[in-house]
C-alpha cells in the first residue's frame, strides 16, 4: 500500500513537470506564430504567457523559491505589454521597468557570487575582456544610431544601459568563476538579453522589420528560459579538494 502511494506520487510529479514544460513550449510557439503572421500589436495578448509559464515552472521546481525570480518575470511582463502598446509613447516608463528588471535579476544572482570571484584573475580572462569589448561596441553603436530620437530621454537611456551591463557582468562573473553547474545558462542569458535589447531598439527607433520582431521574441524567450532554468537546475560544484576536506 505504501509503495503504491509512493508510485502514484512519483507519477503525479512527473506528469506535473511534463505539463509545466508543455505549457511553456505551447506558449513559446504561440508567441512566435503571432510575431510571424500577425501584427505586432497582437503580441500584447500572448507575450505575457511566456513569463507566466516560466513562473509556474519555477515555482513547481523550487520549494524555497528565490522571491526575486517571479518578481523579475512580473516586471518584464508589464514592460513587454507597454512595448507593444506604444514603444515611443511609453519609452521612459519602459526604460525604468527594464532597468528595474535587470536590477532585480542582479539581486536574484547575488548569492551565487562570492568575494573570491571578483578578482583581477577572473576579470582579466580573455573571454571576459573580449565579451566586454563586444558589448561596449554594440551598445555605443546602437546608441549612436538612435540618439537623435532619444536625446530628450538620455538619462533613461543611460539607466537602461548601466542596468543591462551590470546584469551582463554578473552573469559573466558567475560563468567564468565556474563554481556552479549550468553556469553556461547565464552566459546564454546575457547574450540573449543583449541581442534582444539591441534588435528591439533598432526595430522601434531606426528600422522596423518583421524578421527583427521574430528574432526579438525568440531571443527574449530563450534568455528568460535559461535564466529561470539556472535557478531550477544549478548546484554548487564540489571539487576533488573540497571532497577531501569533507572527508
Structure description:
80% of the residues lie in helices and 0% in strands. It is mostly helical and 247 residues long. It has one domain (2-246). Helix 7 runs antiparallel to helix 8 (154-177). It is globular and about 50 Å long. It starts with a helix and ends with a helix.
Task: State the main characteristics.
247 residues, mainly alpha, disordered C terminus
Give the low-pLDDT segments. Answer: 1-15, 241-247
In helices, the fraction of residues equals over 70%
Q: Work out the number of β strands.
A: 0
Q: How does the major sheet shape up?
A: none
- Whole-number average pLDDT? 84
What is the CA–CA distance across the termini? Answer: 39 Å
Tell me which oligomeric state these chains represent.
single chain
- The total count of helices amounts to 11
- Global outline: globular
The domain tally reads 1
**Approximately how much beta-strand content do the residues carry?**
under 5%
Amino acid at each position: 500500500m505504501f509503495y503504491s502511494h509512493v508510485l502514484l506520487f512519483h507519477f503525479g510529479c512527473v506528469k506535473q513537470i511534463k505539463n509545466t514544460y508543455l505549457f511553456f513550449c505551447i506558449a513559446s510557439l504561440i508567441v512566435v506564430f503571432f510575431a510571424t503572421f500577425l501584427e505586432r500589436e497582437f503580441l500584447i495578448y500572448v507575450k505575457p504567457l511566456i513569463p507566466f509559464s516560466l513562473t509556474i515552472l519555477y515555482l513547481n521546481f523550487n520549494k524555497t523559491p528565490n522571491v526575486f525570480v517571479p518578481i523579475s518575470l512580473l516586471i518584464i511582463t508589464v514592460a513587454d505589454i507597454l512595448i507593444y502598446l506604444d514603444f515611443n509613447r511609453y519609452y521612459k516608463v519602459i526604460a525604468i521597468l527594464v532597468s528595474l528588471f535587470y536590477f532585480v535579476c542582479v539581486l536574484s544572482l547575488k548569492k551565487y557570487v562570492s568575494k573570491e570571484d571578483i578578482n583581477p584573475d577572473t576579470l582579466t580572462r580573455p573571454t571576459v575582456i573580449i565579451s566586454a569589448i563586444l558589448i561596449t561596441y554594440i551598445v555605443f553603436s546602437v546608441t549612436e544610431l538612435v540618439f537623435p530620437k532619444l536625446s530628450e530621454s538620455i538619462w533613461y537611456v543611460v539607466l537602461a544601459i548601466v542596468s543591462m551591463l551590470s546584469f551582463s557582468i554578473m552573469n559573466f562573473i558567475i560563468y567564468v568563476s565556474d563554481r556552479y553547474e549550468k553556469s553556461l545558462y547565464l552566459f546564454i542569458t546575457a547574450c540573449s538579453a543583449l541581442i534582444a535589447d539591441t534588435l528591439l531598439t533598432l526595430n522601434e527607433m531606426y528600422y522596423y522589420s518583421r524578421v527583427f520582431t521574430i528574432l526579438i521574441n525568440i531571443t527574449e524567450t530563450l534568455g528568460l528560459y535559461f535564466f529561470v532554468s539556472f535557478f531550477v537546475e544549478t548546484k554548487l560544484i564540489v571539487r576533488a579538494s573540497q571532497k577531501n576536506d569533507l572527508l
